[in-house]
Amino acid sequence: MLDRFAVDDGHHLPQLVIDEDASSAAGTARFRAGCSCGTIAPHLAGTREQALTAHLAHVNTKLGPSKGPKWLPVGARLVILMLAMLAIWMGCYITGEMLADGSKLIVAGSILIGAALAFGLMVGMRRYIAPTRA
Question: What is the pTM of this model?
């Protein structure tokens, strides 16, 4: 029932609470939904399923589509990102090999710089790859 992608970031975890007043008036347990982000709109207490549905509606308002082009599927965007990361890393490695003149320290430094630049690209492009969460 819960969309795992929507709540796995830790910002929107459901917090179900039994409403004492509504429970004693109805004679059965009445649940009220809360969210770990603290911004869920208050709603009337109901069954556990109604509380989960209210929480999921809240989470869906906090999700936004990815900023990448709609005509390009997410899998293709990931492949392009991986190829760009590999090209950056290989470019740094080849540059390090050309500048090294036999020094292993320069080659190792260029490998580390290439990895840092490639992962920096990945972090910078994450909003263009997958849906964003608020």
Answer: 0.54
Please state, in angstroms and rounded to a whole number, the distance separating the CA atoms of residues 28 and 24. Answer: 7
pLDDT in tens, 75-85: 888 899 999 99
Q: How many CB atoms lie within 10 A of CB 113?
A: 16
CA atoms within 13 A on the CB side of 59: 26
Cβ distance 59 to 41 under 8 Å? no
* 36 Cβ neighbours under 8 A, 6+ residues apart: 10, 11, 12, 13, 14, 15
The per-residue pLDDT for 102 is 81
Q: Tell me the H-state helices in the chain.
A: 4-7, 20-26, 48-62, 74-100, 104-129
- Could you write out the DSSP letters of every residue in 57-75? HHHHHHEE--SS-TTS-HH
Q: Whole-angstrom Cα distance, residue 66 to residue 5?
A: 14
Token pair 């004693």 is found at 24
Q: What angle do CA 42, 59, 63 make, to 5 degrees?
A: 135
